[in-house]
Write the structure tokens for this entry.
Amino acid sequence: MKKFLNSITNNSIGILRKPVIFEIIQSVFQGQPFFVILLAVQELIKPLDGQGIDANRLYMLLAWLAASIVLLFFFGKAVYNMEHSAAYTIGSEGRLALGEYLRKLSMGFYKGRDPGDITALLLQDYSNIETMISNLLMAAIGAVVLPVVFFFFLLPFDWRLTLLTVAPIPLAGLGAFISQKIVMYTGTRHIKAKNEASSRMLEYLDGMKNIKAFNLQGEKFQRLHKAFDLLKRKSIQQEAVTGPSVILAVWILNAGIALVMLMGIKFLLVGTLSLGNFLIFLIVGTRMYDPLSKVMINFVELTYYSISGKRIRELYSVKPLPEPEKSNIPDKHNVEFEHVWFHYHDTDVLRDVSFRLEENTMTALVGPSGAGKSTITRLIARFWDVNKGVIKVGGIPLSNIKNEDLISRISMVFQDVYLFNDTILENIKIGNAEASPEEVRAAAVKARCHEFIEKLPKGYDTVVGEGGSTLSGGEKQRISIARAILKDSPIVLLDEATASLDPENELHIQDAIGELVKGRTLIVIAHRLSTITHANQILVLKDGEIAERGTHDELLQDSDGVYAGMWNEQRKAHNWKVGSKSYSGIIGK
């Protein structure tokens, strides 16, 4: 239980201490009205024994009852606020802590997980935790405490009926235990089906443009239909298989009322139980089952929500990339690969790769898809750790540099640019959150995006939509370069930044890249070989190995080499005719 509570509270279990204590006190207060009524009943049945009724005592009991009800109201209100405040604080802080933890995990984690499942952890699972703490967990604590209070109150009156009163509870607990095991089995599958449906919905909405363009409504909708049909079946199963055990548990508790009445009448008839004590058990003893019946009904939901805590705990068991206690900050920014091996899902992506990138030079990575080009850039940024070998920056292994110190020295511009649903100003400031508006504009001018930004309805305050949906690919790419310029890092990684752009946009972006890479260590993944003819070093990758290396002119000397073949193919591809019209590409001239 402690591990579970630590996982859902991010090791801040102390936040629950005060709400739990006050919930216990409130549960004791909840028994006050019953105790007062019992004392009043004892007073009212005195004439049966030939005694007179003490009216003053009844007035005192009435005052006690009124005071306990008022206190219960105000105390209950305070407990309610306390419990919900703790629940939503846990949810808020837990999501932020989980988001920070996710940032520290390697990219391999994300490759193996469905985005919908990760989203559910942050949103749905923590919503379940909030509901569990604010409504179910605290109510369960109260449901346990109140019967304990009643037990010790009833024991002096008649130990036999007291034991009979509590006898059904262990049997009902057995039914709850069975339902717990069932819920843990079916609930895990239900949550999986729910997350799958969420993922398919995101896929359907994100792919709507392609679905319409290729007339795939039926096929793609079928994927969504199957996901929601599975969710429906798992939801019905979740309710159907757990219901009988819960109903049985509640029935056993209700049977306890009949047992107390039956045995009480028997003891009353043989003279071993007084009428007053019998009435006490009828009034208070049977009330013992009310909170337990409620908790039995809610126990299934409580168990179901606890699966969210288990999922969160499992995520925290995924080890982040190790970091040194003290960071060794490099003075220089040359990059070295020394006999690096890297595999993903038991498939070697890089095999014994070694090279050196000097400071203030440009190194280009070329080769067919899947050769390992992007993997090299991501290993430099330490999105993953190598399986064998070592990568160094400034002569220091990446494992000896804290991630924040490493990333602060690297700017990245990828082919697929993601912009947040925020203003252009804030999207560029991702490169440097402390930058002034003037510095942002200066970076935008260098990135050749200031002109089109100024033409937008609100200029730099224009909201670009989720993923930058209101901008073109070339505009997003230039904003991405503005981010990198604003970050002003000594190492720059360009991953096919111009691969899918039209000639006009490519010209703007080549100019922007020219501003970005001045005086920096540049690693560029090139699709168009004409853009890297002046690189200080070109590494040609094939099947995870460096097949060739050298300058553009050196590599062309081997007419049978991989690079020379790629160069000749691109020259041919960019000089072709349709009818009588000639088209020349932007490279190879």
About this structure: The mean pLDDT is 81.
